[in-house]
Amino acid sequence: DIQMTQSPSTLSASVGDRVSITCRASQSISTWLAWYQQKPGKAPKLLIYGASSLQSGVPSRFSGSGSGTEFTLTIGSLQPDDVATYYCQQYNSLSNTFGQGTKLEIK
Amino acid sequence: QVQLVQSGAEVRKPGASVKVSCKASGFTFTNYVIHWVRQAPGQRLEWMGWINAGNGNTKYSQKFQGRVTITRDTSASTAYMDLNSLRSEDTAVYYCARDQEWLVMYYFDYWGQGTLVTVSS
After folding, report:
1. Which one of B44, B105, B113 has the shortest CB-CB distance to A91?
2. Quick one: which of B65, B71, B60 has its CA closest to B84?
């Protein structure tokens, strides 16, 4: 299985900050990568697919980049509603695996 | 609006089985593949398998092969996930999730609310 590793595991930032989360794949996955936001007690919400395509209805402050083995989710201006855990997911093989998650907090 | 509504929390003893349902509304059920993903406490999300709601074809993760069965009832627009030989490590929230129309892309645009399955003696 392709292993996905996110960094950092926890991130604390101030409202209005630009925030980035990194996801690394154990082998090349082209741009077969999605990002999800999960709030406590809720199901994950799709933010980004194809590494950089914004899902319909997701605020434009969220963006994704990268290809191959290294990917980044960026929040352009952090809002209080963005407090959540963020997961990357590769879907390169005829299966899929998730990262361990990055917990985002407000300072 | 698109909704996936799952059945309620379950408690089972080790060795038992559990069946979780996922009722779809707001879209044409048979045009989609429905996946099942679980999340053990404090752990990452883990894909279990999918069913093509149109033709009933299934694919399972190797980890769960032989223990999980995914079925659907098109008349009820409902998918089901049956997991047997339960052990304590199967304690988790189980989610159903929708793939892209007509495709199996393995990324999920709508999710059910989750069903907590607790395995305890």
Report:
1. B105
2. B65
pLDDT value for A20? 98
- Find the closest chain A residue to B50 by CA distance: A95
Which residue on chain A is closest to B114 by alpha carbon?
Answer: A43
Give the distance from CA A25 to its chain's centroid: 13
Interface check for A100 against chain B (CB to CB < 8 A): the answer is yes
Q: Hey, are the CB atoms on B61 and A95 less than 8 Å from each other? A: yes
Q: Spell out a b/e string for B8-31, using b for 16 or more CB atoms within 10 Å of the CB, else e.
A: eebebeeeeebebbbbbeebebee
- CB interface of A with B, residues 13-42, below 8 Å: 34, 36, 42
Q: Give the mean pLDDT of B41-59.
A: 95
Write down the pLDDT at residue A42: 96
Residues whose CB is less than 8 angstroms from the CB of residue B66 and which lie 6 or more positions away in sequence, other chains included: none
CA–CA separation, B24 and B77 (whole Å): 5
Most A CBs within 10 A among B5, B48, B108, B115, hence the mutation to make, goes to B108
Cα B40 to its chain centre, rounded Å, is 14
> What whole-number distance in Å separates Cα of residue A92 and Cα of residue B109?
17
A18 contacts A74 by C-beta, under 8 angstroms:
yes
